[in-house]
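Each letter names a residue; the fold follows as tokens. Both lines appear below:
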Amino acid sequence: MISRLNSNQERVMALAALVQAAALVHQVASTGQADELASRCCLASLFVTSPESTEDVFGGGEAVNNLRLGLVTLKAIMGQDQSLGAREITRYVLGLTHLQGKLRKRPEMLNDISKQLSHSQRQVDLYELTHPNVFASVAETYSSTLSNFRFRIQVTGNPTYLQQPMNTNRVRSYLLAGIRATTLWRQVGGRKWQLVVFKNSLQRELDVLLSQLKPA
């Protein structure tokens, strides 16, 4: 992939996308609401199949702004934010990386996910990206594939919100987007041990990307 970012910035961007997906899961589970821009970015990333760069997965020239939630949340987590929300988001991130590791060993499941997302793309073409039918289609992809692993991500929050079918679909869609981001993170060289060994370097690159954010 051709990118204007250096290798560490690519890893930070992909990691921020993973964190953003986890943050959206937490938002829906705890409030029943989700950041609209972040939501569109995560969902759209599932349908970018031939990107020319890391940024292309998240909106090209608007990638940094599209990942605002993820970048800001990643900054808080790397700064050892001890709030309940940060701990829950971190738990989802770790769960997604573990689940993606299992998925890597199941090429037939990866193929199934790709085929089912092609069907979801037709839903996008018929309606629009954040239409309930699209969320339902993407959520079904997650349920029929990744939910078959013995390891499952336990989403916690307000039962009133979690029991609503639309919110269930949104949560599963964001989890699948998190798997997409984790896959990209590994493709650009991301590994868990780097978060410890190269933490200072990653934080510097994170600050560079944060400095590029447009005023909210």
Notes: The chain has twelve helices and no strands. The radius of gyration is 16 Å.
